[in-house]
């Protein structure tokens, strides 16, 4: 009698796991897809921030060069000796 009862319980547990396995698989793929999408978006945001920082520094350097442009031969020579090309 006890063996019959444990056999039925085991059978129901196996059947329940067999039914739940595809559901768990689908939910896992959905969560994994969301995690991967958030990683991609985070990387894209970091790349855009790096680009904006680069262009901001380029703009700053251009303004410094325009404001510090050599007016004569001597200032050009001094600037090249200090900063190089």
| Average pLDDT for all residues | 85
Low-confidence stretches: none
Order of helices and strands: HH
What is the first-to-last residue Cα distance?
94 Å
Q: Quick one: biggest sheet?
A: none
- How much of the polypeptide forms β-strand, as a percent range? under 5%
Number of extended strands? 0
Computed Rg: 34 Å
Our count of helices gives: 2
Overall spatial form? rod-shaped
Domain module count: 1
From the helix content, strand content and strand pairing, which structural class follows? mainly alpha
Helix proportion range: over 70%
Highlighted features:
85 residues, mainly alpha, 2 helices, 91% helix, 0% strand, rod-shaped
Describe it for me?
The chain is an all-alpha fold and 85 residues long. It has one domain (2-67). It is built from two helices and no strands. The N and C termini lie far apart (94 Å). The model has no long low-confidence stretch (mean pLDDT 85).
């Amino acid at each position: 009698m006890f063996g019959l009862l444990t056999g039925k319980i085991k059978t129901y547990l196996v059947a329940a796991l067999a039914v739940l396995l595809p559901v768990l698989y689908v939910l896992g793929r959905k969560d994994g897809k969301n995690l991967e999408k958030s990683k991609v978006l985070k990387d894209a945001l970091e790349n855009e921030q790096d680009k904006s920082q680069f262009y901001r520094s380029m703009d700053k350097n251009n303004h410094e060069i325009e404001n510090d442009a050599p007016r004569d031969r001597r200032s050009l020579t001094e600037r090249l000796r200090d900063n190089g090309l």
